[in-house]
Amino acid sequence: MKSSAGNAISGFIFGAAIGLAAGLLFTPRSGDETRKKLNYRAKEYTDDVTKKLSDKIDNLREHVTEIGNEAKSNK
Predict the structure, then answer these.
(1) pLDDT grade for 72, boundaries at 50, 70 and 90
(2) pLDDT at 63 over 80
(3) Dihedral, CA atoms, 59, 63, 68, 70, nearest 10 degrees?
(4) Alpha carbons 41 and 22: distance in angstroms, whole number
(5) Is 61 in contact with 71 (CB distance < 8 Å)?
(6) How far apart are CA 13 and CA 7, in angstroms?
(7) Residue pair 16/45 in contact by the 8 Å Cβ criterion
(8) Nearest-CA neighbor of 5 among 75, 56, 68, 45?
(9) What gap in Å lies between CA 10 and CA 1, rounded to an integer?
């Protein structure tokens, strides 16, 4: 069984692939312009996902540290 985070990531990837395919099929731009725009968008999405993952990892570290501190103080 997949976790909700796994489902969200799968949904994001599927949606991005569908959007990419639709964009390529219906674009009025030249191939060069389309490639430049795709590269730009891919970098934007990569940066966004990297930042969100980094934030989630930082939150998880803080949570684990808090739990560890609570466990030590309850001994």
Answers:
(1) confident
(2) yes
(3) 140
(4) 14
(5) no
(6) 10
(7) yes
(8) 56
(9) 13
DSSP, collapsed to helix, strand or coil, labels residue 13 as: helix
Please tell me the predicted confidence (pLDDT) of residue 1.
45
Q: What is the pTM of this model?
A: 0.49
Q: How many CA atoms lie within 13 A of 34 on its CB side?
A: 12
pLDDT tens digits for range 15-56: 888 988 887 777 777 778 878 888 898 899 899 999 999 999
How far apart are the C-alpha atoms of 59 and 75, rounded to whole Å? 25
d(CA 38, CA 24) in angstroms, rounded, equals 9
Distances (CA, A) of 68 to 55, 56, 64: 20, 18, 6
Residue 48 tokens read as 């966004």
